[in-house]
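Weekly modeling sync, notes
Attendees: AB, CL, MP (scribe)

Item 1: holo prediction request
CL wants a bound-state model with nicotinamide-adenine-dinucleotide before deciding which constructs to order. AB pointed out that an apo prediction alone won't tell us much about the pocket. Agreed to run with the ligand included and paste results into these notes for async review.

Input as submitted:
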Amino acid sequence: MVSRVIPVDTFDLVIFGGTGDLARRKILPGLFRRFCAGQIPAGARVIGAARSAHNTDEYRQIVREAIEEFGGARADACDHLDDFLQMIEYVVIDARGDDGWKELADLMAGTDRIEAYYFSVAPALFGDIAKRLKKWGLADAGARIVVEKPFGRDLTTARALNKTLATYFNEDQIYRIDHYLGKETVQNLMAVRFGNMLFEPLWNSQYVDHIQITVAETVGVAGRGDYYDNAGAMRDMVQNHLMQLLCLIAMEPPARFSPDAVRDEKLKVIRALEPVEPHHIVRGQYQAEPGNEEQHPSYRTAVENPRSRTESFIALRIEISNWRWAGTPFYVRTGKRLAERSSEITVVFKDTPHNIFEEDAGRHRNVLSIHLQPNEGITLGVTIKEPGPGGMRLIDVPLDMTFAETLDADEIEHVDAYERLIMDVIRGNQTLFMRCDEVEAAWEWTDPIIEGWEARNDVPRPYDFGSTGPIAAHEMLRREKREWRQVTE
Ligand code: NAD
């Protein structure tokens, strides 16, 4: 099957923070891969804008090195790097002062291309940049801004940030990025749900026993301890990424696949979330690796805060109060320094109402697994008869719904979430970006949970390095005669 790459219109993309970690690891290599795929038109420009004093040639060298280091196999196989580098420019700019803004305004003047500004800088600078874009005449009606996470640290700060951005830009110009939504499989989840007759009739509490969402990481907090200790897993992962996944799984079918129709349905899910009872929350902190404390210290050592009460792991039992989901719990968990790096959504269907195969009573359930990383794919566990003689023995087999072999394997493997989302920004498609009311509603649900454990002086439970989290997280499910799915790659 031939992949269809539809070129986007000519654009100028300004990356504030163009020398930073995110730009070097994700944004620039992603743009290069899109260039190699033929999606970026001749004449498009990528303009790095940051505080460090470089000229364009020096910056092109930075971009070259970033692509060589982080571009991946597809970039290695592409010999157009020199052509791509010709699209790159650089402006030394101070987000908090006037330095560099005239140069940027001159560079952007007199073109009728699509203008996009990627705020790949600390959130404290978002307002400064928005204000100066306006001041220097760069915030015209067609301009788009891309805003990175974290979007606030509670409802008050998120509201303030929304208000600031709304002073200079309309909502249809603001792209709040959540890279989980850019993953191929997340979109495939919507295709599977809304493009088939099979699943939708079963997609409710009558047929679904429970749903699990796991985002397990093997990394610790090294390098970003200051930020993380002020945030914790709830703010860093649940309020945004896990919440978005939960919305896509739980939402009603939108009337059409348009940005606001999809986001309206996601918002309804968030608004239907029940407050979470304290006994449905398990927070944890990872311990050092025994015998290797130097290299893999405990959470508290890593963040240099021996009394830290911030969680590096959280598990929650969430209920959605609507007709579709009343009675079906959603178990979500995420943590660092766990056994495997794995993100997975699992829909566990109920037992058949009557089991005619007495020997196998209660042992087989249909399970739909949506793997987001490291290997993207969707499988449906179905029960069949074990082939061969020997009676009616049942086994569960996975039905692969990704069909990688029949699709263009190159496209599937190499379109990273960031490159897909950046192309959506250029196309002006906001479907996979969070709207202001969604972000605020998510904080509205999150805030009381955090305030609750702060008021109770809750101390996270220790869990072993390389484990699956605190034992209490397993007990929470066992109390309900359920089990977490095994964390596997
Ligand atoms: P970084 O510290 O590596 O880079 C920051 C960039 O901002 C640098 O280019 C620096 O020159 C520039 N900068 C700093 N002060 C400036 C000023 N006053 N004026 C102009 N430029 C200035 O940060 P990062 O890791 O690249 O993160 C950028 C944003 O992306 C943050 O909001 C972060 O939360 C978010 N983010 C990063 C990652 C990641 O993997 N790095 C992942 C998700 C979200």
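Recorded for review: The radius of gyration is 24 Å.
Action items: CL to compare against the apo run; MP to circulate these notes.
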